[in-house]
Amino acid sequence: MPGPGTLVVLLAVVTLILVVALAFRPDLARNGGGRIFAFLVLLMLPVFGGFLAGWRHLDHSTSTSFCLSCHIMEPYGASLESETPSLAAAHYQNNRVPRDEACYSCHTDYTMYGDLAAKWRGLQHVWVYYVGGAPEPQDIQLYVPYRNRECLHCHEGARSFEELPLHAGDIREALATNELSCLDCHAVAHDPESLSAELVR
Amino acid sequence: MRPRLNRLSLAGMLIAAGILVEVVTLYWGHPMAFLVFMFVASPLKLAGIMVYLSSLLLPPRGVSY
To answer: What is the ipTM of this complex?
Structure first.
């Protein structure tokens, strides 16, 4: 069965054929039925297809390969496979995140419009990369400090998290309010300096 | 060719160009693909749709269908 991407392209191609037919034979839209045909072909299908294509783009941008297609992200991609202890490697190598959405799983916002917010940040990345001057991989920083919400989205309620005495009481409250970051104890998330060395090796 | 039909042809060509660019971006794995989709394909389609709507809402004077 064809995948959703193929169906989106198929719809676009069908729409394209109908639109071209109408462009070269506009007299098709002269009578009542033809006007409905024109309405479907010149308005409904392009709008519907546009939303589907946008959704495909959003979906594709959650893939690990998409994030790592930028040269500047190579050390971070290497961190997933690295033997250097880091949160990213531990999550990726132990299947705590889907491997094909490894970056996205930790770097999206788990809110109603989190996907769109992540996409917006991605557009900022592209802008900085092409216009603002790309930083060195080890100089890349998050726009805002990493929020515990993203960790707790998966770990809250998990036995390994809940049963650990260190996570109880005041610390639990501090985690909930971001007064204490998960990364204060669970560093290092990535280690670009050692990663660059690994890439050279 | 009558004016309204001319506008339909123009609308069709703009939308077709937009769809062509859109399909190319769907096969292009680079992050730039989304920008091209947003700032080239979508405006082309939008322009075509606006031309089509204008042909419906603003019929040329002296022509009735």
So the answer is: 0.84
